[in-house]
Write a structure and sequence with these properties.
alpha+beta, binds zinc ion
Length: 260
């Protein structure tokens, strides 16, 4: 289990290692998920999971709404929540697990960002969703980029770069994210792309924390799709909205006791 220290000051969260191998994602499965839910401080019925489709759709969890249904999971690659009684989660094997929390409001997001989602602007979309749903300003966000495949190991074809261009990313950005490898092969730096997209969305650079742990290099500790293939397990990134913001708001009456 890994935590990002600056993020832990804002919201309870963690990234799992190989020590926990959750079963299939359908909501009825409790294998491993019960342990993950318990670590997050909720029952497994309050652990929100989504059917990830490598897109940029957002699932909204709102305080006071009923527990997530155990029927079909919503299709989404980002979840935003203001409900401290629900832990929200994404699953990855090499893709980037991104967790966000608002240090004033305590609201959170969990994002699955592989190359397709990153090309589809899922990072910017998640930051925007926190703003629209809960009034979060990007300058109040703290971001943790968890273990994922690094530029050391992430070889891709030219069609991936073309997809970023087609999705409207600036050439300067694409040039920073892709570097030449053997023949027509390229290296993609998803850590850099995620950081740049967070900054472009207004998140302060000093509030972006990248673990810089490559899952393919450290397959002894983390699952890797590139190394292990389709049978690879999944790292789960989990975060739960704070009951109350944990970092004092210098401009607000955060030290006052709750009123009657
Ligand atoms: Zn590596």
């Amino acid at each position: 289990m890994l935590e990002c220290t600056p993020l832990s000051l804002v919201a309870p969260h963690f990234f799992t290692t190989r020590a926990i191998a959750p079963g299939p994602v359908h909501a009825a499965s409790v294998d491993g998920w019960q342990q993950i839910a318990a670590e997050a401080g909720v029952g497994v019925g309050r652990l929100c999971r989504v059917a990830q489709v490598h897109g940029a759709a957002v699932h909204y969890v709102r305080r006071g709404q009923p527990a997530p249904s155990s029927a079909a999971l919503p299709e989404a690659d980002a979840i935003v929540s203001d409900d401290p009684t629900v832990a929200v989660s994404v699953r990855v094997a090499d893709c980037v697990p991104l967790l966000l929390a608002d240090r004033r409001r305590g609201v959170v997001a969990a994002v699955h960002a592989g190359w397709r989602g990153t090309a589809a602007h899922v990072v910017r979309t998640a930051v925007g969703a926190l703003g629209r749903a809960f009034g979060s300003g990007p300058t109040d966000l703290v971001a943790a980029v968890g273990p994922s495949i690094g530029p050391c190991c992430y070889q891709v074809g030219p069609e991936v770069r073309a997809a970023f261009a087609e999705a409207g990313h600036a050439v300067d950005d694409i040039d920073r994210w892709f570097s030449a490898d053997v023949g027509d092969r390229l290296r993609l730096d998803l850590w850099r792309a995620t950081r740049d997209q967070l900054q472009a969305a207004g998140v302060p650079p000093e509030a972006i924390h990248v673990a810089r742990i490559c899952t393919a290099t450290h397959v002894d500790r983390f699952f890797s799709f590139r190394v292990e293939g389709a049978a690879a397990g999944r790292l789960v990134a989990v975060i739960r909205a704070a009951d109350a913001p944990r970092v004092a708001d210098p401009g607000g009456p955060s030290t006052l006791p709750p009123g009657p």
